Amino acid sequence: MSGKISRREFIRSSVIAGASIGLGFAGSEMLRANNRFDTIIKGGVIYNGEGGAPFPGEVGIKNGRISAIAASLGESADKIIDAGGKVVSPGFIDIHTHTDGNLIDAPLGDSRIMQGVTTDIGGNCGESPFPGRRHQDLDGFYSSLPSETGINYGTYTGQGSLRQFVVGDNDIRCTPEQLEQMKKIMALQMEQGSAGISCGLEYTPGSYATNEEIAELCKVVASYDGLFAIHMRNEDDRVEESVAEAIEIARKSGVRLQISHLKAQNAANWHKAPALLKMIEKAEEEGIDIAFDRYPYTAFSTGMSSFIPLDKREGTRDEIIARLKDKEESARIGEYALSRIQRLGGPANVVVTSCKQETNKQFIGKNVEECCAITGKDPWPFIRDLLVEENVSVSIIGFAMTEENVKLFLSHRLGMPASDGSVYSPVGPLGQTMPHPRSYGTFPRFLGKYCRDEKLMGLSDAIRKCTSFPASRLRLKERGSIIPGYFADIVVIDPLVIADAATFESPHQFGPGINEVLVNGIHTISNGKVLQGRGGILLGRS
Ligand SMILES: [Zn+2]
Questions:
Q1: CA of 304 to the centre of ligand 1 (A)
Q2: Cα of 230 to ligand 1 centre, how many Å?
Q3: Between 3.30.70.860, 3.40.640.10, 3.20.20.140, 2.40.110.10, what CATH number should domain 92-298+401-530 receive?
Q4: Structure pTM?
């Protein structure tokens, strides 16, 4: 090394050189003022998010960005954060959330930032708060969000929301004019910074679209290099056909494909997981840009209305309720619901997690078998009455997946963890609900249980799956890695103690091991305590 400038000196001198550019003169006072960092993170081991070997070093932050990385950066900073020998990682990026409007009730993003997430991507499963009557477009929705948020937020455009806005709630073909209008609106959302398009083909009215219609919208998204996130048409008995369908849409449209919350649901389908991965690998070999995400839990969360067959979910809520009240219709819907519940493993595997009517709140946190014991009703009459009383809005959790497949998906080269959850907070209105614990625990659970305890992969690769991998899928500029020039979204974690604490019985829990969180350079969490600053931005906003 002798005779050469050391790495440390090089970085120091480039920082100084960079700071003096454009000054016109370089008085020593000016130099010192400009060489000063806003924050230096010292005493940590840097995992830069790219999957390589970690190295001890310091991270200098200025104007919201990482401005230098070196063995030592001195003391010239407004704030020094001591990482205490722990891991310095890029902030986690959650590619699949339903955060959306919840940011209004919890602008800090409590359940997210306290697990080290610095960026949430919402608008998944075909549903976004725009376009619609309330928010015409992404710009309109962004304007409705709080001006100060703790985390960064970006969003897909929901294909179901788009179809509802243009075509309506019914199971009809769109006209050529309507298709043109949807394409135009889709293009506008991309212009405004949307991450791409999401589908929820188990839900209405998005599922009423033909594959050709979806492919046409995906072509628009592809022209902006956006991503197509698909909640597939079926995730149990016809899951192989559904993966094939997703790949076919990508093939036809040229769009980059992200299969959402990949699963093979119900015991009868668990054996299909390796075949699904084969199909995905084959598509990749063929040249399709494909990956998938998965939450690190064996239970799913959805609406109880998924027990109503799609054709009986058509139209307005009043129309659906009328069907539930009609004797013959109800009997037919009940048959379908019971067969679904049977395949899930019985009513004990279905837990009610949210309802609004005072008299029904006693059911929150109880499984359908327990609810039936309380009410003296059989499962279908109980579910039917609950749906009617709650205006069809009841959330449930279903235990229908196997641990073995969760591991298989998370450890696969093309798999990454994502919560499928949302922003929640133990305080305020959101604290009254019983969300799936994944909203609080996904990333600590992935790094603690699956990486450290079960040794599915090394820490560097696990961190890559939480950071640069989702960032590259989303084409997020200058995020997801600790590289000079990148935005300073950084989390300091203790890999020995990191764990999820949220449970199905008590979901509003923060786990240990998330020591410090910075979002765009703003130090927001320190030793588990919330500081004053809020650094989040709305991604893609012009
Ligand atoms: Zn979904």
A1: 14
A2: 8
A3: 3.20.20.140
A4: 0.89
